Fold this sequence. Notes:
The chain is of the alpha/beta class. It is built from eight helices and eleven strands. The chain has helices at 2-45, 100-107, 128-138, 179-196, 273-292, 300-311, 346-349, 353-357; strands at residues 92-93, 113-120, 144-151, 166-172, 205-209, 213-215, 227-231, 264-272, 316-318, 324-325, 339-341. An eight-stranded mixed β-sheet has the order 1-9-7-8-5-2-3-4. A three-stranded mixed β-sheet has the order 6-11-10. Helix 4 crosses helix 5 and helix 5 (273-292) packs across helix 6 (300-311). Its main location: membrane. It is a single-pass type II membrane protein.
Amino acid sequence: MKHLINTKALTVVVLSALMLGVLFCYILLSYRGVELFKQNNINQQNGLAADDVIPVSHEFHLVAPDHLRYEQPSILRGRTDVVTVTPWLAPVVWEGTFNQVLLDSIYKPKNITVSATVFAVGKYIMFLKDFLETAEQHFFVGFKVHIYVFTDRPNEAPQVRMAAGRQLTVRSVPSSKRWQEISARRMELIQTLIEEQLPNRSDDYVFCLDVDSKFHGRWGAESLDGLVAVIHPGYYKDGRSRFPYERRPASRAYLAPGEGDFYYCGGAFGGLLQEVHHLAKTCRSNFEADAQEGIEAAWQEESHLNRYMWINKPTKVLSPEYLWQDFKPQNPEVHIIRFSGVVKNYAEIRPNARESAAD
Ligand code: UDP
Ligand code: MN
């Protein structure tokens, strides 16, 4: 008898639990149904198919705020004095090709961080103050910015007031007796920085910049893309046979006559973290393999970068507005100088300038 009551009680408990479970599932599903319905309505308003709820990559999904008013883009009028697209259909950024209000409205809500690396080894520390102060005024103003300074003189790093959301990290690196080595080691340090400090941030960007330069105009969201290269101001009117690529086939930076698109700067490049990581890693290992065989490319990492960009086409190309040289007069097609190398006395600031001048 007792056994029978126990069985009955157990059945009641099991059945009630089952009914409660069914009720719970029903409520949960109908709630999710309402949420999906709401989402579908939003998607439909924004032109997405009702069942298109697959998450898209942040990089390629550009959401503009509703009701933003800006000048109507023309499909007929625009810059005609310069080329604004490469043969592989990457944009070439010149003043007059983009709307900065629109770009800021698209990129600011993405909450990205834009990092910059800059090397100030030996006497080059003297350029750091102007670089940092002008970056405050022009480089990704209003964005989260993290500048990494690599120097052998951390105590001499200047104190620069940085706006909210912007920060500076100073990392110690060994000094060197050869400027070629300092220049070349940048790739290795960029590679390890991305591996150690900036991992798993697939939406973030990094730019690698020369320190002997100042910002004079906006450098902002128009420069963001997967792999970004800057056209060198010294060669953009020349034929490719005049580009100072590495011409010895023994080097891994070799480009044969008839090869090469543009001559890109070693003093400014960037893009998404994983793209820049791949670039830095490749250039570093090619540079080191060359060194093992006793060969150093004509312009060190700039030569390797040019080789890299020949094979791995940049997804966005920045015009020489993004790295001019102060000693060059401003050409008419350059409507604004955004970043420019200062005039410097090589003999005074490079550790082995005299010896290398004789090379
Ligand atoms: N650099 C440095 N110390 C040196 C030589 C070079 O910190 O003694 C770094 C610095 O960031 C510099 C970059 O390497 O901007 C490239 O060298 P440099 O500007 O002299 O090359 P250039 O622009 O004249 O070709
Ligand atoms: Mn420089």
